From TrEMBL:
Organism: Mediterraneibacter butyricigenes
Keyword Kinase among UniProt keywords: yes
Keywords: Kinase, Transferase
Gene that encodes the chain: xylB_1
Signal peptide: none
Positions of the Carbohydrate kinase FGGY N-terminal domain: 4-249
Name used for this protein in its record: Xylulokinase
MF (Gene Ontology): kinase activity
GO BP terms in the entry: carbohydrate metabolic process
InterPro entries: ATPase_NBD, Carb_kinase_FGGY, FGGY_C, FGGY_Carb_Kinase, FGGY_N
Length: 516
């Protein structure tokens, strides 16, 4: 039997395929970027067939670059973007483009759920605050606005079960971690809540089957072997939501250690032995990829995506320098950011470029800069975005602590962990020791660990993490900067509240929709 496993991370902006040895050695890594589309204000969609095609292409490249015989790769695990939903017919064909988790069109359905179920009862059942993030709201929106499509849909699936099926799994199986994000799963029983589906008018037969993570579901058939490069018979293992996978891949598998992932989205995650609920119903309680365990997390809709937006729209000069010097454009931007003092000379960014998730759950919130003067530079603006995203994470961490969660160490991964500038900003702002990982792609590593567990190569999650995870650098907080950031942080929170309370965001969004 071979001694290698593969993790595939199907994200919002690209797919990454990595092949690992059982000691955590990276044999190869391949990445392909792809876009979302934005047909109307607040709408975010994606071509689901494109993500599958790119998964095949990237898998072939990763296998080729590894130099391994594909037969040596024992199993595949998936880490997938959560809440991006696709209605499919009985033959598995997509009936429309996938509706992204970033999409905020279903704000009216959010209000309907509050009226029909009640926020408190909904949270008690699902562990989720009511918001446009949840696929249940998009299913309700489709039923109301495209009833013929709803009726034609055989299933409403996320990327996990959709891609597993295309890889060779018969049927559609949703792991508990992704299932808990639908807004229809009983968080205590890990089952679809049939009373909830009935009250919301959703046919439960249109939902996939629920299974734990780390379960063998099938094998790669010859037809898929040809498309992907994986050997026929390679085991297909249920993976998990990208951030729950990152919890395993980052080592946040015990109390006192939390993980902050600054990917396209941002997620701050803490492990729980029991489904402890937030009394204010602001912090989700969802299923972990560790079977039968839970996690508390705070979601940011646009974390590194906000920084990428700056790169795309404003970093033309930095991109030219990067090409000339053979550097990453982000490294060039970071060099300039490092010269800007904390607080960005009085410039604050409220980074809700895709609405606000935890802890406000405000679909109308939009990105906002406060404090602009003629003296501000693009470097100030870039750092303000980086700090704004970190303020958002800090608010989530403070909420976790207020709910009784112990925080001793913060593990960093994703785009926000790739450069020392953002890592130090995080340590200073949180006032906690922050540690980066040798393998920054914790989501992909977590998927590979689940593949190894499913294949029986390790007996426990703890054993697998101990063997495959290695820490890298430690960042200790500068407490003088921490005190300064606390003062800016209060202004940041007050600014959002003032704009929200005055309905500024909601009025802007609805006015923009009127003009379409």
């Amino acid at each position: 039997m071979g001694k290698y496993v593969c993790g595939i991370d199907i994200g919002t902006t690209g797919v990454k395929v990595m092949i690992f040895g059982l000691d955590g050695t990276v044999m190869s890594s391949a990445y392909t970027e792809y876009p979302c589309t934005f047909p109307r204000s607040g709408w975010v969609e994606q071509d689901g067939e494109m993500t599958w095609t790119k998964t095949c292409e990237t898998s072939r490249r990763a296998i080729e670059e590894s130099g391994l015989d594909p037969k040596e790769i024992v199993a595949i695990g998936l880490s997938t973007q959560r809440c991006t939903i696709t209605p499919i017919d009985k033959d598995g064909n997509a009936l429309c483009t996938s509706i992204s988790w970033q999409d905020a069109r279903s704000f009216e359905e959010v209000e309907e759920i509050k009226q029909i179920i009640g926020e408190e009862e909904f949270y008690k059942i699902t562990g989720m605050p009511v918001g446009t993030l949840l696929p249940v709201t998009e299913i309700m929106w489709l039923k109301k606005n495209q009833p013929e499509l709803y009726e034609r849909a055989d299933l409403f699936v996320l990327d996990q079960e959709r891609i597993l099926h295309k890889l060779g799994v018969e049927g559609y199986y949703e792991d508990w971690s992704n299932g808990s994000m639908y807004g229809l799963m009983d968080i205590n029983k890990f089952e679809w809540d049939l009373e909830l589906t009935k009250k919301l008018g959703i046919n439960p037969k249109k939902l996939p089957k629920l299974v734990p993570s780390g379960k063998i579901l099938g094998e790669v058939p010859p037809s898929v072997s040809y498309l992907t490069g994986f050997a026929e018979g390679t085991l297909l293992v249920s993976g998990g939501g990208d951030q729950q996978c990152a919890g395993i891949g980052a080592g946040a598998i015990k109390s006192g250690v939390i993980e902050v992932a600054m990917g396209t989205s941002g997620v701050t995650l803490g492990y729980m032995d029991k489904p402890n609920m937030d009394p204010t119903m602001e912090m989700p309680c969802s299923a972990h990829t560790i079977a039968g365990k839970w996690e508390s997390e705070g979601l940011q809709n646009a974390a590194a995506a906000s920084y990428k937006w700056f790169r795309n729209e404003f970093a033309y000069q930095e991109n030219l320098v990067a090409q000339e010097k053979g550097m990453s454009v982000y490294d060039v931007i970071n060099e300039k950011i490092e010269q800007v003092d904390p607080g960005c000379n009085g410039l604050i960014c409220i980074p809700y470029l895709a609405g606000s998730a935890a802890p406000h759950w405000d679909p109308f919130a939009r990105g906002t800069f406060i404090g602009f003067t003629l003296g501000h530079t693009r470097e100030d603006m870039a750092r303000a975005i980086m700090e704004g995203v970190t303020y958002e994470a800090k608010e989530i961490i403070e909420k976790m602590i207020a709910n009784g969660m112990e925080v001793n160490e913060i593990l960093l991964n994703g785009g926000g962990a790739k450069g020392p500038v953002w890592c130090q900003i995080q340590a200073d702002m949180y006032g906690k020791t922050c540690t980066t990982l040798d393998i920054e792609e914790a989501t992909t590593l977590g998927a590979a660990i689940l593949a190894a567990l499913g294949a029986g190569l390790f007996e426990t999650v703890e054993e697998a993490v101990d063997r495959m995870l290695r820490k890298k650098e430690v960042y200790n907080p500068n407490m003088k900067n921490h005190e300064l950031y606390n003062r800016y942080f209060q202004i940041y929170k007050d600014a959002y509240k003032a704009l929200s309370d005055a309905n500024i965001y909601e009025r802007l969004v609805k006015l923009a929709l009127e003009n379409k």
